[in-house]
Design brief:
Blueprint: E1 2-7, H1 11-22, E2 27-33, H2 36-46, E3 50-54, H3 62-72, E4 76-81, H4 89-95, E5 97-102, H5 107-118, H6 130-138, H7 152-162, H8 167-174, H9 178-192, H10 197-206
Parallel strand pairs: 1-2, 1-3, 3-4, 4-5
Helix pairs in contact: 2-3, 6-10, 7-9, 7-10, 8-9
Length: 215
Amino acid sequence: MTTVLVADDQPAVRRAFAAILSAAADLTVVGTAADGLAAVELARRTRPDVALMDIRMPRLDGITAVARITASTATRALMITTFDLDEYVYDALAAGASGFLLKDVPAAELVAAVRVVARGDALLAPGVTRRLIAEFARTRRPRPAVHGDLTAREREVFLLLARGLSNAEIAAELVVTEHTVKTHVTRLLAKLGLRDRAQAIVHAYESGLAGPPDR
């Protein structure tokens, strides 16, 4: 059973998301919050697997709230935004979010997204591409790349991961099993001190390991 926290300052949206997620047999909504500060307090108390967070909220914005939640719990954050080119998307990922969706996401896709994030995968809305992430990354001061501990194979996996490929796609590219890819991903994330695939994508661009995405 995957536990979920829902945070949004719009009561109708909050209730709708909670109802949709509660209807899934494998998901349980442990609470809802109307602002970022309440979300942080609720997350620390209930320790949900996933926090579904609005980006713009009163008292404490969603990005700051996510940073606090991911720093003190194992909760994974899935951001909800109104616009597919939201200026805060990159900041949300850098703060610890595992992905984001648009508020008009169909119910089935919302449920699927929570499941994806709960199992540790990155999730980006269709309207937001690696090109957008790379553009945001280029506006930040690059941080030193620390990849010396990665094996040659782990580096290959990392580069493919940074391109947004799934484990199955990476396995096909390298002609290995998905289990092998999963093992490499787990090890490289641990070596680099990264939380999940979303953080790996951001790190790859910030450190300069991954060049600009193909256009």
